[in-house]
Amino acid sequence: MPDKETEQILTLRVPKNIAENTLAKETTVKAINAKEAKKGMTFESFLVFTVLIVAIIGAYESVTELSMPALSILSLVHGYGYLKSYPIVYEPNKGIWHMLGWTGSLMMVVMMLYSVRKRLAVMNSLGTLRHWLSGHMFLGILGPLLVTLHTTFKLNGIITTSFWCMITTMVFGIVGRYIYIQVPRSITGAELGVQDIDRIVDNLNEQLHRHLNNADLTHLFNAISVPYDKARQVSPLTALFLMVKTDIENIFKISRLRSMLKKHYGALHWRIREEIEELLKKKAALIRRRNFFDASHRLLHYWHVFHVPLAVVMFLIMFIHIIVYYIFRVGH
Predict the structure, then answer these.
(1) What is the pLDDT of residues 185-237, one digit of tens each?
(2) pLDDT at 128 over 50
(3) What is the distance between the alpha carbons of residues 136 and 30, in angstroms, rounded to a whole number?
(4) ∠301-133-245 over CA atoms, to 5°?
C-alpha cells in the first residue's frame, strides 16, 4: 500500500481531455513500439510453449512405456499402423528413445550456426542476430531435453559426465541470455552507450509528463524497484543477484502500480493508463541497465570464459559417446 505522501501525489487532478490529446500525438510511436514488442514476445512465447509441450509429452511417454505400455502414445500410433518399426521398449538404444538421441544431438550441432552467423558478414542478410540468438537458445534447450529423454535416466560412466556437462552448458546458456538482454540495444541490435540511455530516459520523462499534465511522478515511479546508482560499483556476481532480485520484485510491484493508476487516475482512458504503465516499466528497466552497464559487460566476459569451453567439452564427449556406441554395436 502507498504511504500518505504517495497518495497525495497520486490524487493530483488530471484534465479529462489529456487522454484524447495525448493519444492522438502518440499513436504512431506506440504502434511501432507495440509491433516490435509483439514480434519478440510472440517468438519467445512460441519457444517456451514448444519446450513445455515436448517436456510434458516426453514425461508422459517415459512413464507409460516404463510401467503402462498399453497407455503409451507409441502404442496408440501402432494401433493406426504407423511407426511399427519402433518397439515399445524403454531403453536408450531402442525404440523412439534412440531416435530422440539423434534428433537432440543434431539440434545441438545446428544451434552452433549462430556462432557462424555472428562471424561471417556474408550471412548478414539471413535474419537478425536477435532471431538467430532466440533460435540458438531454443535448440540449446530443446536439444538437451530430447537427449535427456533419450538417456531414459540410465546414467553411467562417460555418459554421466556428458549429461551433466550438457545440463551445465544449457543452464549457463540461459543465464547468458538473461545477461545479454541487460545490455541496452537498438532495434538493429547495436549496443547503446550510457549517454544514449540517458537520452531515452529523458524522452520517456517527457512523455510521462505529457500524459499526466506535468504532475510529480517521483513517488509513482518509486513504486517500481530500481537499484541505486552505487549498484554499478558492485561485483559481477552481486550485480547478477540484484538484477534477478529486482526483476522478481517488479513482477509483483507492476500489479500494484496498475491498481494505483486505475484507482487514482480513473479519469484517463484505459489505453493511456496502459501506456503510462509501459513507460514507467521501460524507464525502470533502462535506469537499472544503466546502473549495471559496466557490471553487465563484465558478466558477459566471464560468461564467455566458462560457456565456450563447456560447450567444447560437451561436444567432444558427445562425439566420443557416439563413436564408442557404434564400435561396440558393430563388434556385437
Answers:
(1) 654 455 566 666 667 766 776 666 666 665 556 666 666 666 666 666 777 78
(2) yes
(3) 30
(4) 60
For residue range 239-273, list pLDDT tens digits in order.
788 888 888 887 777 777 777 777 766 666 667 77
Rounded CA-CA distance 251/268 in Å is 24
User: Could you give the C-alpha distances from 211 to 16, 131, 219, 221, in angstroms and in order?
Assistant: 11, 34, 16, 14
Q: Residue 33: which residues within 8 A CB-CB, separation 6 or more?
A: none
Radius of gyration of the chain (CA): 25
Count how many residues are written for the chain.
332
Q: Would you say residue 21 has pLDDT above 60? A: no
Residues 6+ apart with CB under 8 A from 16: 267
> Does an H or E element contain 142, and which?
helix 129-151
Given a contact cutoff of 8 angstroms between Cβ atoms, the answer to whether 215 and 15 are in contact is no
Backbone angles phi, psi at 185, to 5 degrees: -140, 155
Distance (Å, whole) CA 249 – CA 53? 28
- For residue 139, which phi and psi values (nearest 5 degrees)? -65, -30
Please, what is the end-to-end C-alpha distance for the chain in angstroms?
A: 71
Cell match 557416439: residue? 322
Instruction: For the chain, give the longest Cα–Cα distance.
Output: 84
Helices 18-67 and 129-151, interaxial angle, to 10°? Answer: 20
Contact 111, 136 (CB under 8 A): yes
Q: Check: CB of residue 211 under 8 Å from CB of residue 19.
A: no
